[in-house]
# Entry
Amino acid sequence: MIRQIVVLYYSRHGSTKAIARQIARGIESIPHCEALLRTVAEIEPQQQPASDPIITLEELKQCHGLAMGSPVWFGNMAAPLKHFWDQSTMLWLSGDLIDKPACVFTSSSSLHGGQETTLQTMMLPLLHHGMMVLGIPYSEPALHNTQSGGTPYGASSVSHGRNQPLTDDEIELAQQLGKRLATIATSLT
# Structure
């Protein structure tokens, strides 16, 4: 049986999308797991078109796990991602996401730009839906050594205000988080 794990993200400048891709690589390194890269619709349609398909509630309902990511917007998840969750009441009422594993990831332009609070705001709808939220344990060596992104709450990156590639630690932590999510999803189904 193939376990489909949704990697849901919103990205305006590409940093969050880059982490999503690394989490997807981690997921797909686990046998019988497939990452479905999805984004959310823009609130203002004049924004650039999405590079990955827009998530549907049915895809979320059917998934075996979820990784969710957003850039830091004033210490909070981006409005389009929050808007998507505000539409998920039917899944909440039916309990379709209860006991599914989930994790979160983010990106910011500075190290102290609100990464941990953004990760925590993304956890709130997941907890209300009854999902099991996973972080990155300190058994991951890169978490001890990173000088850029990565927290026990989830994977992250720091762009320092410019579009730059992820660091080796950011890549490692994102892939390990994806592996952990896929491993737990596999053990639960």
Residues 86 and 125 are 9 Å apart (CA to CA). Helices lie at 15-28, 57-62, 79-86, 89-94, 115-128, 141-145, 168-188. The domain at 3-188 is CATH 3.40.50.360 (Rossmann fold).
